[in-house]
Amino acid sequence: MKNCIVCNKLIKGRSDKKFCAITCKNDYHKMNKKQKDTTVQQIDNILHNNHTILKLLTTSAKSKKIKIPKLILDRAGFNFGYFTGIYLNTKGKTYHYVYDFAWMKFSDQEVLIVKKD
Fold first, then answer.
1. Whether 99 contacts 50, CB under 8 Å
2. What separation in angstroms does the CA of 94 have from each of 14, 64, 87?
3. I want to staple 64 with a disulfide (CB 3.0 to 4.6 A). Which of 37, 46, 94, 115 is the partner?
4. What is the 3-state secondary structure (H, E, C) of 47-111?
5. How many whole angstroms separate alpha carbon 97 and alpha carbon 51?
6. Is residue 27 within 8 Å of 73, Cβ to Cβ?
7. In whole angstroms, what is the distance from residue 1 CA to residue 69 CA?
8. For the segment 3-61, what is each residue's pLDDT rounded down to a tens digit?
9. pTM above 0.85?
10. What is the rounded distance in angstroms from the CA atom of residue 111 to the CA atom of residue 93?
11. What is the torsion angle, in degrees rounded to the nearest 10, for the CA atoms of residue 117, residue 46, residue 85 and residue 71?
């Protein structure tokens, strides 16, 4: 006999059962869904923060392309590890998308930001 993975009560019935009752099964799946939702929410918050930073930095720009020091993005809390897509242009340069913005490390000290339509 096995014990329930939620409440640790003895399980009666089939040998492959994991839960003693439907309430334990529901609680288990609800808990797992909540953990997944929390992870998705954390990533979504980072992406939205990155988007907000890019939007603020480009709002006053007259052009759709601007070069700014990487240090400014670092200080604003921009997370370079999170983006919504990647584009490799014909010159072999990699652009990272954050929704309707793209950024590319222009050098170790500068980043090119492009506002997409």
1. no
2. 55, 18, 6
3. 115
4. HHHHHHHHHHHHCCCCCCEEEEEHHHHHHHCCCCCCCCEEEECCCCCEEEEECCEEEEECCCCEE
5. 9
6. no
7. 64
8. 999 999 999 888 899 999 999 999 999 888 877 778 888 999 999 999 999 999 988 77
9. no
10. 12
11. 80
Which residues 6+ apart lie within 8 Å of 24 measured at CB?
4, 5, 6, 7
Question: What Å distances lie between residue 115 and 20, 63, 64, 66, CA to CA?
Answer: 55, 9, 5, 9
Report residue 51 as tokens.
């988007």
The tokens for 70 are 């990487």
In 3D space, the residue among 106, 107, 116 whose CA is nearest the CA of residue 55 turns out to be 116
Give the SS3 label for residue 11. coil
Structure tokens given for 85:
């897509």
